[in-house]
Amino acid sequence: MGELSTLQLIIIGIGALIALPVVFDxxxxxxxxxxxxxxxxxxxxITVSQWEALYSSCKDxxxxxxxxxxxxxxxxxxxRDKICLEEQEDEIEILDD
Length: 97
Known about the structure:
Layout: H1 6-29, H2 37-60, H3 64-73, H4 82-91
């Protein structure tokens, strides 16, 4: 590239001074997207509570296929206490129509 003369360095410096405000304005307008953390927690907890309500309703109505499908869709929510399940089975009353 060779050595630059004093005049060339001064012209480069003036060009940089002219360009810097434009570059700063460009980067001020660019913002990184951020996920709202509190909303994500809220929607997750709402989803879990709605799943629980739906699952309980299906179980109360003896809709075993629907319960199985809910278990497939939400596999992380499937783990249940087996002792609790056995106690609930004793309390379920099957009605004859």
